[in-house]
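Translate structure to sequence.
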């Protein structure tokens, strides 16, 4: 309740800037309740105080900018520097070891899944830079995961209105399962919505053209 009161005060004072600046700082590993803030922002959108059309891009930009900054920090300074000085921004060696363990388990997909694993998303950017993941590959995973993560929590407040806190608690409890279900639904929608285009692409790309009958056969 105390956290929610602080978030409410921040939105009263700074409005849309809370999600942009707050999420950016969170991904640099500074303490900020990003998920709660987005859900509450969605609730403010439900009440008509804020506009969801602004909240989505600002949340996405704050998240991706924070992730990108941490990627380049990790890439430029490397593991020894972060191990030595990371404690000043809450990057403890234990948390870095935990991130390494999850990376070894899930590979590059952790960059997307990390948003939904408590205590991991703040470090995937740093670690991706440390192990020199190609930036294009990092961006593809990081930005797609950021879009799903931000839309999910903004939608909790926007869709469920006054009941958002109860739904939020369930979403946090089953965070990874919820995210996988949403990804499956999005993929299903894309396949259904663009099935004709996908099928046409498949025919052009993979199906071999049939050979024309030879002249001897024609005669």
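Result:
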């Amino acid at each position: 309740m105390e956290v929610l009161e602080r978030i409410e005060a921040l939105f009263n004072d700074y409005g849309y800037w809370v999600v942009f600046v707050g999420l950016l700082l969170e991904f640099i590993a500074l303490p900020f309740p990003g998920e709660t803030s987005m859900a509450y922002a969605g609730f403010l959108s439900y009440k008509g105080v804020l506009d969801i059309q602004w909240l989505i891009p600002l949340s996405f930009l704050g998240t991706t900018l924070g992730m990108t900054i941490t990627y380049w920090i990790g890439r430029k300074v490397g593991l020894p520097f972060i191990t030595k000085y990371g404690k000043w921004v809450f990057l403890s060696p234990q948390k870095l070891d935990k991130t390494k363990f999850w990376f070894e388990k899930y590979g590059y997909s952790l960059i997307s899944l990390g948003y939904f694993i408590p205590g991991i998303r703040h470090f995937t950017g740093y670690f991706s830079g440390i192990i020199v993941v190609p930036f294009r590959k990092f961006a593809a995973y990081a930005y797609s995961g950021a879009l799903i993560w931000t839309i999910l929590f903004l939608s909790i407040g926007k869709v469920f209105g006054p009941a958002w806190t109860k739904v939020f608690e369930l979403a946090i409890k089953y965070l990874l399962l919820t995210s996988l279900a949403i990804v499956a639904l999005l993929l299903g929608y894309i396949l259904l919505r663009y099935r004709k285009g996908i099928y046409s692409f498949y025919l052009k790309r993979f199906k071999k053209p049939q050979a024309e009958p030879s002249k001897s056969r024609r005669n």
